[in-house]
Amino acid sequence: MTMIIVPMICHSSRLQNENSGFDISHRLMEIGRQAKRAAVARIVVITHEHDRFQSGRDILLRRDSPYMLFDVLAELKRRGHSVRIEQGLSKTSSADIAVLHVDATITPADYLDYARSFPFCLNVATADISKRRVSEALLNRGDAWQGPVIVKSNLNNQGIPERFLNRRAQRASKQLPFPEVPTLQPYEVYDSLGDVPDGVFERDDLVVDKFIPEKEPDGFAARFWVFCGESERCTRYVSPNALVKASETIRREPVPVPQEMRALRHELGFDYGKFDFVMHEGRAVLLDANKTPGRPKNLVKMFAAGAAHLADGFEGLIRQLR
């Protein structure tokens, strides 16, 4: 009997140990799932009624977008967060966190009010990104500046986003959201303030800036700082053109973010966005700030590769709310 009983006891003990181990493992897995569920957020992106944040699906069922946020949201969805693009205003929307992504220099008041109805909304403080508000290179007629100058639109991206929204509203037989947007005018560079044409300083739609790109033996350079929460990347682009654009560069390199830019970001209320700046006479000078940064077609792969890092910053903002 003993020879029979002992193996049975050992077998029973082993089963108990295995079951105990399974129970512990199962409980740990469940705790992990619960923690993950607790971290998952409902995200709403508020866009203008006439904006087109993303395209319809192509033959391979893929979407595209002109905006950098598109790749960040794709990464957040991959991590389990729910994302909804909300075109225009809604009376029934709910979310844990919202992103105000109205592609216009001045965000309309009703969109700001709607954004404030959410528990937390990114970039709700960035209602005005006009050059007169953000540029540190602004000049007045009587200034003592002796260098070259550039005449720009006071609107972000020359007012092209506003014209796009107006066209789509017109096609839908709706009221133009930005009826007073001026005629598109290209940027003009002059050797001095004295060469600026008469009447420019009297126009509300134009500004005069110092023209101070960083000079290189083979061209000109400017710096673009992209950020979301505490995640960031700052890149110096060199272009053969004096007006430096990321999409028209011959080389690029990572560079540190100057403290002056961090202070300005805090002052201007940016949670997410892009700053264009240069180093001039030993200090950083902000030229432009964008709350809806774009996604150049020839840099799509590079921007997509950096989306995971920016998504980390977005999740960091979510954790601050909990």
Could you name the key traits of this structure?
322 residues, alpha+beta, 6-stranded antiparallel sheet, 4-stranded parallel sheet, 8 helices, 31% helix, 23% strand, globular
Task: Indicate the topology.
Blueprint: H1 2-39, E1 42-47, H2 69-78, E2 82-87, E3 97-100, H3 109-115, E4 121-122, H4 131-134, E5 149-153, H5 160-171, E6 188-190, E7 206-210, E8 214-216, E9 219-228, E10 231-239, E11 251-254, H6 259-268, E12 272-280, E13 283-290, H7 300-305, H8 307-320
Parallel strand pairs: 1-2, 1-3, 3-4
Antiparallel strand pairs: 5-6, 5-7, 8-9, 9-10, 9-12, 10-11, 12-13
Helix pairs in contact: 2-8
Computed over alpha carbons, the radius of gyration is 26 Å
What is the overall silhouette?
globular
Name the beta content range: 15-25%
Q: For the record, give the distance between the C-alpha atoms at the N and C termini, rounded to a whole number.
A: 62 Å
* Number of distinct helices: 8
What is the helix content?
Answer: 25-40%
Strand segment count? 13
Poorly predicted runs are: 1-20, 28-38
How would you sum up the major sheet? 6 strands, antiparallel
Question: Helices and strands: which structural class?
Answer: alpha+beta
Helix-strand string: HEHEEHEHEHEEEEEEHEEHH
Q: What is the mean predicted local confidence, pLDDT? A: 87
